[in-house]
Amino acid sequence: MKRFKHLGLALILIMIVSLGFTFKANEGNDFVNFVKYDKTTVKIPLKVIEKIRSNFISAELPDWSQLSPEKDGYEGTRTLELYDYIKSNGIADPKPIIVAVMDSGFEIDHPDLKANVWKNEAEVNGQAGVDDDNNGFVDDFNGWNFLGKAVALNLEVTREYARLKKEGVSETDPYYKKVKDEYEEKKADDVSTYDYIKVLSGNMKKSVDVLKANNVTTDPKKLMEIKETLTGEAKDAAESILGSYMLMGVSPDDIFSYEKEFESKVKLSYDLNFDPSSVIGDNSSVWDEKNYGDNDPTVKVSSHGTHVAGTIGATKKGIGQAPFVKLMYLRVVPADGDERDKDVANAIRYAVDNGASIINLSAGKYFAPGNNPQYVKEAIKYAESKGVLFVVAAGNEGTNIENTLNYPPKFYKEDGNIKYFDNLLCVGASTWMKQWSTEKDPTNKARKYDLAASFSNYSDKVVDVFSPGVEVNSTVPGGKYQSLGGTSMASPNAAGVAAILKGYFPNLTAAQIKTIIMESSRKYNGLVVKSKELGKVEFDKLSKTAGVVDAYNAFMMAQKMK
After folding, report:
1. What 3-state class would DSSP assign to 211?
2. pLDDT tens digits, residue range 495-553?
């Protein structure tokens, strides 16, 4: 994931026009007429432009996710306000608790994380190559890497399609047809996107070559300063690069790396011959095996997982919600592709058995074949029986997940009735503002970043609460920081608040913490936001609580329950 930024549509259009682009928007067929360096024009779908923009652009925002609406003007969790209250009232330090980060791995040596990485003392102080604590994992010093040397995997729908074909299931079978159609639709969409990215990258390469030949910088920010001094082909090349920069927020290096990244993603995601077990080293049909994966936390250290870990427990003020926690490393999510249900189920059980009070999983998918959901459900129920809270992201497709099944399962059927887990908190993504700023979008056409993030999944029966998930600044590899967005960022903000409650009120159960977070959430009665599927809709309709996580309110409620 890359950094996010939001430019107002009106501002973008002004800049695009000034740099030789034309913009057309036809209902049901939105596209940009992209004028290339050689003055030829190619139509680029707006959805492709948006995909690139959402991965690279970033706004100048403070670390807003812990700020307060009334004090600071941002719809954050009020965590900093809470810590001021705790300090001024001489409240005793919290109990250190373990939060399991089930993700793509995180940089355990990051300056703001290394002090808070969980250590399995029995293994750290034991014999190398020996399962000193008899938990089934050898030398699991900080957790476990369930993916082993695997970096990326294919999609679950790909794996299922390959299985059905191998087993010779009839093409007329309804389930076979459903899987095949979804596979082909997803593949065609990504291949088409990749083809457009290649066009943009090829144009950028020509422009870069021209500027280098004329000894002119290719840095968009520097080009902005000198563009009026350029003439001829250098001017044309500069305008081409600046046009891409204004439209999508990408530099030449950005688009080149993105092309390479997307190429790899397309190839592996839909590879019917790729067997994850061949790389991971497990038997995919044996669910309870433990002797696969490894203890190596350095396999392609991930921005995503590092960002999630930092949001929960980084030591830097305003970044980590609960800077006193111990972060357990559990790698189950590939850099690209879908996580395997086996790894998810095993990681949940590992976290529970090794002392975690809270688990965060910022991942999800729309396919889980066979009995897979049942295995994950049983793991969640196991966590429930041990009093462990499981916090999950709602997903980023802007869809109603009551109507579209989303995994890991947020509910299950029992005796013909829909049941919800007492220990599972499903989190949607909110933004820093109640309504889209008229300064950024004078015509109020975009309304993309109302309180509810436009990409966030929703449901007033499945999604429990919303939490900051747009432009969230946190830790990334290399000891750095970056703003990212998604329900992946919203979930750890909520998990961090849950950790605050558990740390200061250790006797609270998982169910009580979930209830407190939901009931204490900040309400916005009558606020109308924009939904990708529903159009204008009351915020109340998007979650069970119609609220945003509020650490201050939650703490006050917990105090009264002591």
Report:
1. helix
2. 999 999 999 999 999 999 999 999 999 999 888 787 777 778 889 999 999 999 999 99
| Rounded Cα distance, 345 and 361, in Å | 11
Give the global pTM. Answer: 0.90
CB atoms closer than 10 angstroms to residue 221? 10
Beta bridge partners of 474: 482
Q: What are phi and psi of 274, to 5 degrees?
A: -85, 125
Distance between the two ends of the chain, CA-based, in angstroms?
A: 41
Residue 476: which residues within 8 A CB-CB, separation 6 or more? 107, 303, 306, 307, 310, 482
Q: How far apart are CA 216 and CA 238, in angstroms?
A: 9
DSSP H helices, 214-368, are 220-226, 232-248, 252-269, 276-280, 303-313, 341-353
> Hunting for tokens 């950028």 — which residue is that?
204
Domain range summary for the chain, segments of one domain joined by +: 9-55+171-269, 61-151+284-561
Distance of alpha carbon 50 from alpha carbon 9, whole angstroms = 12
Secondary-structure breakdown of the chain: helix, strand, coil percentages, each rounded to the nearest 5: 40, 15, 45
CA distance 185 to 255: 25
Fold of 61-151+284-561: Rossmann fold (3.40.50)
User: How do beta strands 143-145 and 29-35 pair?
Assistant: unpaired
Q: With H, G, I as helix, E, B as strand and everything else as coil, classify residue 359.
A: strand
Angle at 332 between CA 383 and CA 137, to 5 degrees: 70
Contact by Cβ (8 Å): 428, 465: yes
Name which of 322, 308, 313 is nearest 501 in CA terms. 322
What is the tens place of the pLDDT at every residue in 366-398? 999 988 999 999 999 999 999 999 999 999 999
Task: Calculate the alpha carbon distances from 36 to 41, 115, 259, 333 in Å.
Answer: 6, 50, 17, 38
DSSP conformation class of 26: E
Are the CB atoms for 52 and 250 separated by under 8 Å?
yes
Q: How many whole angstroms separate alpha carbon 296 and alpha carbon 151?
A: 12
Give the Cα separation of 322 and 501 in Å (integer): 9
The total number of residues written for the chain in this structure: 562
- Quickly count: other Cβ atoms within 10 Å of residue 274's Cβ: 18
Q: Give the CA count within 13 Å in the CB-facing half-sphere of 103.
A: 33
- Give the strand pairing for 326-331 and 143-145: parallel
**DSSP 8-class letter at 368:** -
Using CB atoms within 10 A of its CB, is residue 443 exposed (0-12), middle (13-18) or buried (19+)? Answer: exposed
| 467 three-class SS | strand
The three-point CA angle 264-44-258 to 5° equals 25
Short-list 1, 3, 23, 4, CA closest to 12? 23
